[in-house]
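Morning!

This is the sequence you dropped in the shared folder:
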Amino acid sequence: MTRKMCVFLLVFVLVGTGLMAAGKSETAKAPQKVDIKIIWWGSQTRHEGTIKVIELYKKQNPHIGITYEFSSWADYWTKVTTMAAGGQLPDVMQQDYARIAEWVKRGLHVQLDDYVAKKIIDTTDIQPSLIDTGRIDGKLWAINLGSNSHAMILDADMFKKAGIPLPPKDWTWEDFEKIALSLHEKLGIYGYGVHMWNDQIWKAIYISRGEWIYAPDNKSLGYSDDKPFIEYLEMMKRLVKAKAMTPRHEEIAQYAGGTQPEQTPLIFGKAAMQHQWSNQLSAVDKASGGKRNFVLYPLPRVKGGKSANYIKASQYFSVSSQSKFPEEAARFINFFTNDIEANKILLAERGVPISSKVQEAILPLLPPVQKEVFAFVSYISKTGSPCPPPDAPRHGELVKNLYEPEVVDKVLFDIIDPVTAAKILRERGNAILSKN
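The structure's back. Tokens below.
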């Protein structure tokens, strides 16, 4: 074989080998086709925004297929509990501060610390305290989707029409009751709308007293004095009797039990005050036509008490332990948290974004109602109480099977009196909490 021929063959082999290696490299780099599922609860505004973000993510990541499901808060937990029992939990699940400990205890979530360490979930522009709200026993199980706080939504125009000044920010429950009665007397509407009965108010009353509803071991109620709870139940009965608050039967029949912000007397101009989470102001404003003058106020305090408000994660995204693609689920959560274009779509509907860069980018784009939310959360961050511990693992069971049907509903339907209700809550509540 001639020297030229040898050189030619050597070059041919090297080039061919290089092409083969390149081909293998290109094949190796081709991303795997992955299908994940996402589930959340919320308002119609949330559904529309979240779906748009999912479509944006799919456009940027064509190898990812995403299916999704959403529902109201009332149906959500029944749905995901059934899915979990069947091993069919979606890859990404919206989670709640009150329930996360229970789900972690049941082994239904993936720990996220490794994804943060590898920057698959990038926390560079996020205060550690905002990430830490998703930790249990020092381990990260969920990513905060937005900061918010409890609020009373006040219709400022209704107050003006009634000739009633807006209350001071440190108003009390006594102030609240007087205002609700006056609004009804002067305008013929409900002073207060729906959702007064819910367990968040029960918590707020004891937070304002510097207490928590559960003992440190979560095996019993954490307070010894039932009187504040009894007084709260008595106040609701007085307001309903005076027609200054929506009766419970009407709330259930006409307003979806008070669980959907778009279906409330406040929306229809039949009430002037209502308890919601601050991030829900956007849905309330949109449902009412965007022309009302709503303002956010802290919750009333017990007389002589401290603020009942605190900064809390509005909700979280967690990765299901039943997911076949937990890393891809984590990547979607990172996109949802940190991507500027995604958050221009969401516009802080779930609360003030935890990424400082996202906050800076979207603030100029926010409508007045969302700027009201940002200002309110900023105010509470300076004046509120510390965030209480997560709810007891059996909190959901206690609320669903005892607090709502056997305590507050029976009081509001005049089946039992408030003193009896408080006794039932204590005795049967402790029995539920003490279960293994």
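Headline: The domain at 150-309+394-433 is CATH 3.40.190.10 (D-Maltodextrin-Binding Protein; domain 2).

More detail when I'm at my desk.
O.
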